[in-house]
Design goal:
Layout (H helix, E strand, L loop, with lengths): L2 H20 L18 H11 L4 H11 L2 H6 L1 H13 L1 H5 L6 H9 L1 H15 L2 H15 L3 H19 L1 H30 L1 H8 L13 H11 L6 H9 L3 H32 L9 H9 L2 H33 L7 H26 L2 H21 L11 H20 L13 H19 L1 H9 L1
Helix pairs in contact: 1-11, 1-17, 2-11, 2-14, 2-15, 3-15, 5-15, 7-8, 8-17, 8-19, 8-20, 9-10, 9-17, 9-18, 9-19, 10-11, 10-17, 10-18, 11-12, 11-15, 11-17, 12-15, 14-15, 15-16, 16-17, 17-18, 19-20, 19-21, 20-21
Length: 461
């Protein structure tokens, strides 16, 4: 059987398994948005690990281009941010009755801030990067044009996620957790055999690939540490914490997930380095992992590895697609909707979010570019307003200040990105720096206005 034909057969089996796992139990209507807040520790870890690691082709692209700095950029900052999230936020969040970040904003700052934040969350969760990766993979095994692969992948995701909502996501993530690790446990040992083991691989990569910054300079690395703070306002984290059975499960689940990500990062980064050594003239580094597998693996192991890649991306695509849809249905809908109305609007949100993801994926064309640009805009808008919810009242925004901070920070980051010329930003400064400065200025103005001395002067005028 031809390699692609075998892969298509396994892909059909995998797709069928996703559909079967997504079906509701007979006679029971699932709690659509948070699965009844019943996540156990294994389910929590499986769904968080798979959701937060969907950018697998982006990792391959970055490792092929920039080497070991992939771990410095996409590993270490996210471990640190997740650990901070676990210790600072998980218990506080789980003890609330909120279902989303906009719910928290509404409780603290009011409806205008909630709606503004909801638009930012929606922009963060429309899964363009992950749909692009899935379309690239599907094109590899079907030879379809990229646009058709994107449409088919989006439509399939809408169908199976729409069946049971968050329960569909959690059930399928358990399968996809096993597949994503299994795929790289198949490929990496073979790749190391062909490169002379870890020591031979390390000696064979270009010198720049062994440098901590990959030759990009400290500022290009530092901005990813700011982008990693997105974890502190990451809707996927909040959704799973809100859905955990207890606050302790939420905290332990995040910490165990960090350990799982460390293991998976080792597998993916060194596989990416092997691709750089064995495929030094690769035309499209986004396809580094599939190309390496095709070079080294026989038909069946290759097909199994490809299913592992599909599972890694699909587990994130479905999670973010559902988050974007829930934002449409729950956060941007009329307050006080019944669960049935929430479900109906969320299903419509799946269709809208999928259509937007298709358009954005085809427009951007680069996974890392989507991560960088969208992460810069949305993290700048949400970071301080959401974190300040947990500050003492005196050190929070006013409602108007929170709205202004989100809008102005997003506008500044967008303008900075629009001003990029030949890869260089205005004044050589990454967009998150001025955007966060604007957000911090809005907070400082609100704090000063609340001080007794300032208030007294206001009253005398």
């Amino acid at each position: 059987m031809a390699v692609n034909a075998l892969t298509l057969v396994l892909l059909g089996i995998y797709a069928t398994a996703l559909i079967l796992l997504s079906r509701s139990k007979p006679g029971r209507r699932p709690e659509y948005l948070l699965a009844g807040r019943r996540l156990t520790l294994p389910a929590f870890v499986a769904t968080l690990v798979t959701t937060w690691y969907g950018g697998i082709l982006g990792i391959g692209e970055y490792a092929w281009r920039h080497g070991i700095s992939t771990w410095v950029v996409f590993g270490l900052p996210y471990y640190l941010a997740a650990i901070l999230f676990a210790f600072l936020l998980t218990r506080k969040l789980r003890r609330t009755n909120a279902m989303s970040i906009p719910d928290l904003l509404q409780e603290t700052y009011g409806r205008r801030a909630a709606v503004t934040g909801a638009w930012a969350v929606f922009g963060m969760t429309v899964p363009a990067a992950y749909l692009l990766m899935l379309a690239v993979l599907l094109t590899q095994v079907t030879s379809w044009p990229l646009w058709l692969s994107a449409v088919v992948a989006a439509a399939f995701s809408v169908i199976y996620v729409g069946m049971s909502g968050f329960e569909s996501v959690v059930r399928t993530d358990a399968l996809q957790f096993a597949l994503m690790y299994g795929g790289f446990l198949i490929l990496l040992p073979v790749a190391l055999h062909h490169t002379g083991g870890l020591s031979g691989l390390w000696a064979s990569v270009p010198a720049g690939h062994r440098a901590w910054d990959g030759g990009l300079g400290w500022q290009a690395i530092a901005v990813w540490y700011l982008i990693a703070l997105q974890t502190m306002v990451e809707p996927a984290f909040y959704q799973r914490v809100f859905a955990a059975r207890t606050p302790e499960i939420a905290r332990r689940g995040v910490l165990l997930s960090v350990l799982c990500w460390m293991v998976f990062d080792f597998l993916t980064v060194f596989t990416g380095l092997a691709a750089r050594v064995l495929l030094p003239h690769l035309d499209n580094p986004v396809a580094a992992f599939p190309a390496l597998a095709k070079l080294l693996l026989p038909a069946l192991p290759y097909a199994l590895f490809m299913i592992g890649l599909f599972a890694t991306v699909m587990s994130t695509l479905d999670s973010y697609l559902f988050l974007a849809a829930a934002t449409v249905g729950h956060d941007l809908g009329r307050p006080g909707l019944s669960p049935r109305e929430d479900r109906k609007r969320t299903r419509w949100g799946l269709v809208v979010s999928a259509a937007l993801a298709v358009g954005a994926a085809l427009a951007f064309g680069s996974v890392v570019k989507i991560w960088h640009d969208v992460g810069s805009v949305v993290t700048s808008a949400l970071l301080l307003p959401v974190l300040s919810i947990h500050f003492p009242v005196r050190y929070r925004y006013s409602e108007g200040g929170a709205v202004a901070a989100m809008i102005l920070a997003a506008a500044v980051a967008t303008a900075w990105i629009a001003g990029r010329s030949h890869g260089v930003y205005p004044y050589g400064i990454e967009p998150m720096f001025p955007a966060l400065a604007i957000s911090a200025t809005c907070l400082a103005v609100d704090i000063v206005r609340k001080t007794p001395a300032f208030s007294a002067e206001e009253g005398q005028r």
